[in-house]
Amino acid sequence: METASGAEAPVSGELMSVAHALSLPADAYGNDPDVEMAWAMRAMQHAEVYYKLISSVDPQFLKLTKMDDQIYLEFRKNFEQLRIDVLDPEELKSVSAKEKWRPFCLKFDGVVEDFNYGTLLRLDCSQGYTEENTIFAPRIQFLAIEIARNREGYNKAVYISVQDKEDKGANRGEKEIEANKEINKRGETSM
Q1: Are 85 and 102 a contacting pair, CB within 8 Å?
Q2: pTM value surpassing 0.85
């Protein structure tokens, strides 16, 4: 994946170093800015990949983990009334929300790989990842909400929007080809 600065991707030795650093316990670092940057970069790459995925494949058919069914059932059992199309950050981050989310998340410790890994979560699922539309969330929270958005059809808005843009671009390209053929045809007959 190309970096935003256009620089070449790190060599494998650098990747191994970053991977090793990210595997150490958090208390080994304090607030090390290099580690925070590595986590932020990994979270952003994950977000970019996920957004491309829901933009190119009908999200209702996506399977994000082997545990999607269990995650979805447990999520809807515990958060039956949670509005997922446009999330309220208070429903995720307030003290009372954290008290409710913590037992849910811990059910997947050892079941879902990196269940508490930091990820980026879109607040409004009809929009992309922007600073205003993104919050930081544990991976299991991201999975639960995004699996529900996919199954309940909320992420389809992104897929349809991208497909419509691609169709319009293709139609524009077809019109340009037809116009060029017409110009060429006129040019051939006038010679």
Answers
A1: no
A2: no
